[in-house]
Structures are given as structure tokens and as C-alpha cells.
Amino acid sequence: xxxxxxxxxxxxxxxxLSIFSITVSGIYEIIDLVVPYAIGQILNVLSNQPLDKAIQxxxxxxxxxxxxxxxxxxxxxxxxxxxxxxxxxxxxxxPWLTAWFHWDIALKAxxxxxxxxxxxxxxxxxxxYDENNPGRIGGRVSRGIANHTWSYPExxxxxxxxxxxVVGIFFFIAFIDWKIAVLLLISCIFILSLSWKQLQRLSLxxxxxxxxxxxxDSRTSEIITNIKTVKAYATEQQELERQKQRLHRELTVFDYxxxxxxxxxxxxxxxxxxxxxxxxxxxxxxxxxNGEISLGHFVMILxxxxxxxxxxxxxxxxxxxxIRRYSAMIRFxxxxxxxxxxxxxxxxxELNQPESPYQFSGKIEFSGISFxxxxxxxxxxxxxxxxxxxxxxxxxxxSGSGKSTLIKLILRYFEPQTGxxxxxxxxxxTLDVGKYRRRLAIVHQEVDIxxxxxxxxxxxxxxxxxxxxxxxxxxxxxxxxxxEHLPHGYYTVVGERGVRLSGGQxxxxxxxxxxxxxxxxxxxxxATSSLDYESERSIQLAMRSIQGTRTTIIIAHRLxxxxxxxxxxxxxxxxIVEVGSHAExxxxxxxxxxxxxxxxxxxLIE
Length: 606
What we know:
The chain has 606 residues and is an alpha/beta fold. Helix content is 62%, strand content 9%. A six-stranded mixed beta sheet has the order 6-7-8-3-9-10, with helices on both faces. Strands 2-1-4-5 form a four-stranded antiparallel beta sheet, covered by helices on one side. Helix 3 (34-46) runs antiparallel to helix 5 and helix 12 packs antiparallel against helix 13. The longest helix is centred in the middle third of the chain and has 54 residues, at 236-289. 34% of the residues are buried. The model has no long low-confidence stretch (mean pLDDT 86).
């Protein structure tokens, strides 16, 4: 459950420095009150009215030190010196003891929390990303951190010190006339309470608006990601209209509820504040006319009370600003509290350790494996399979038969509900997941490419690889013939998601990248299903050169890719129904024979 204290804990690492800087800021605000007080005493000197005992004591002490007689000149000199000390002398120290620390704390917290957010992103379970797209996640993190960063200097450097200033004004005025001071205090509490009650109501609208904005950003991100599909189906106008509706909904909440509510609050505040200022003026004037206070005290009380009421407006504005940001900050902490995947702690301890101490022969055994994403529907049922070291095993079957799910279990993206997966007779669930995964490599149907150079992408899984090792992997993957035609060779920038490479080129890069980490088990997940014949042939040649060098698992719809596999496993509705070589399975009039016949005639099998 996210609470306000989560926002406070955001800055907890520097709490001692926070207390120091906030305290100093408050002291500076209170010291500023001495200036109108001193001016009031100057008026008393000029009008030949008595000074306060404290000021008289300072003047007498100055006379004793300087041997200068107590007169109007000395009194004015002492008061001017006091004003000089408070204003000019303290000026160069204030920015370093207040503003510097406020932003220093905020920016350090930004760095720390960004690291925490990235760690969270890296350790969340895969199902979280099935339900939330990058735009939604990135927007929540960036808005949350940005709002924390901007809020701290305002709250620590202005909001709290200004509240302390109002309290200080109360004590200054109480020193002169306690009745006016009590009236000032009650009216300030009333105004702030009124503001807070209204802001609490508006915060609910802010939460709704933040969700609306998150949905809009999420859809915008999807449009950008799928822009080719949008253009292919000519749905630009449809997407525009949908986003227009979302933006209009945001405007309705923002303008006619939130903005209107804030304007109504400001109107009420100004009216009440001006009425209170007028009442203080009347009471102070009456006290002066009746001789209860001096002219200097009249000016001082009027000035300080005006300062107090003047502080209420920026205090309310700062509170309003905080309320506007509160929802985004809370939603950021909700994201941080999202439960991590089961492998999170192990993975984080290994992020800076690229090498794995494990070494496997590649023998994999599935023993009684059953699994389902939904407890009411089993995707895999009682899977028993032995893969020998250095064997090439192909998984085939119709879409939804459980092939990709079986691979996800091998990679420990999920854990089986029943049964065990053994590698070299060790249960993979007992192994350190980070070190275990570094002995595996996978080439997906859609190879993930980062915006950078060819070399950066190749060395992603093994940053310390030499150029010679990279070139060897590229030769096996037949990527070398692609690289030599690129304008800058291995240093060619491939663009966002590898847009400057064709599908076949991305596949070859994925194979080379997988080979470079020298895995004990290499997995191809439909690596040729979306390629043209020429590209498919190149990938098949690359895969053929790998066979026998390590345990290889291939998922394929195109049976031409798996003809030479040592073992072909046919799955249907989550069960293994056939196992054998290409020739053995063709000799049996089963599912594989039917799939092969359909492909030979050019019919689809999916």
C-alpha cells in the first residue's frame, strides 16, 4: 500500500542534510522579520517615541564599547547596522546553505531512484510486460521521478520555510499585542485549512487525469511502434480521432474541473485574505490611536501581518503544485512496489558479473513437465523428453501446441507446475538463474536490435570479446558477407530496432551474437519463418554449420529447416505425440507426415 511516507522515504538517504538545509532556510526566513521590526524602531527614534527594551540594551552596549553618547545618531547607526548585517552580510551565504542543498538532495535522489527503477524494470516478470507497453511504463517512471525532483526544492526551500515565517510573525506580533497576534494566527489556520480541504478534493481529479494521460501516452507509443501497420491499413484518421477523444477527455478534466477548481480556490483565498488584512489594519490603527502601541509598532505590525497573509498565497500555490504532482509520484511508488520475478534477487547480484562459472555438456531432460499460464488451462501436459549432449532437436507442431512455452521453461522465464527440467542431471530451479542463463543463447524470430553499431550489438552478451572472436562468429553466421558491404563495417550504426537491416541480416546478427557467448545450449525460435527463400537458405546454412558443436534446439514451422535434426519432436495440444528423425516420422502416417505433405503442396499448416 503506497502512502505519503513513501514520498518522504524517496529522500531518506540524505535526511540529515535535509533537516539541516530546511532548518537553515527557516532561520533565514525568520531573520528577515527583523528588518521590518528595525524599521519600526527607526520610526520610533525619528518620532521621539520610546524604543523596546531589547533595542535599548543593544544601543547602551554599543555606547559602552564606542564611548559614544546615547543619542538619536547612535540609535539610528545601531539599527542600520543591524539591517546591514541581516541583509548584505548574510546574502552570499544563503544560496549555498539553502538552494544548493535543496537541489543537490533532489538530484542525488533522482539518480538513486532512477537506478532503483531500472533495477525494477530488469527484474519484473515477463507477464508484466505482456500487460503494459513501453510507453505506459516509461511514462510512469519519468513523470514520477521528474515530479519528485521538482517538488523537493519547492517544499524544502519554500513551503516549509514560509510556514515557519508565518509562525515567526505570530511571535513577533505577540510580543507587541497578543490579541492581534491571536487573530492573525486563527485567520491563517482557517485559510490554510480551507485551502487544504479543497486541494484534497482536487487531488482525486489529478489522479484521474494522470491515468488518462498515461493511457494517451501508451497509445501514442503503440502508434509509433506499429506505424507501418497503421499506414498499411490506412487507419491514420481512425487513430487520430481516437487520440482526439482522449485529449478532449483530458481537457475536460484539466480545464473544467481542475483549473476551474483552482481558480475558485484562489478567488476565495484572496477575498478572505484581503478581509483579514483590512481587519488587522483597523485593529492596529485603533490601538495606535488609543496610545496602546507606538507609531513604529503600528508600522511593524501592519507590515508583518501583510507579510504573513502575503505568504499564504505562495504557500497555497506550492501546495497546489504538490497536489498536481502527487498522483504521478504515488503511481511511481506503486510501480516500484510491483512484485519482482522469482529470479530477481539472483539476477541483480549477477548484473556486473558477465562470466558464468557453470559449464554444461548440454544434456537436458524433461521429466513429467506440466504447465499452464492459467491454472484452468494446461499448455503442456506430462512432457517427458531426453536431449543428449551436442544433439540437434527440432520442436514442430501447429501454433499453440506448446513449443515456445517449452523454451520459456528451459530459459526459466516460468517454472513448471509439476515435474523437473534437468541439465546434466541438475534441476535448473536449483541453479543461480543469472549464471545458468549465460550458458544458454536464443535466436528469436524477431531479433532484438539496440540502437548502436553492429559491433555493439554483437558484443552485447560478451562485452569483453575481441574483434577476432567477433569475426569468427560472424563467419559461422554468414554475417561477414553483410558487414563487408556496409559503409563503416562493424562500426555502422543500425538505427532504432535495427531498421537499417533487413530481416535476414538481423537474423544473422542474432545468430552471431548468440555464438559469441559460446553457449552450451543454443535455441532457434522460428528463426526463418518470416524470411524470403534466399535469406532462409543462408540462415539454414549457418545453422547447419553449428550442428554437432553444441546442443541445439530448433522451433520451426518450415520443416525444411529441421530435416537434418538428430531428433524431431512433434507436439500437439501440449503433448508429445511423435519423436524420431525426418525419415522415421515420414514412414509413419502421423501428424508430421501430414504437416510435411501440406507444406509440399504449398498449403498452410497453421
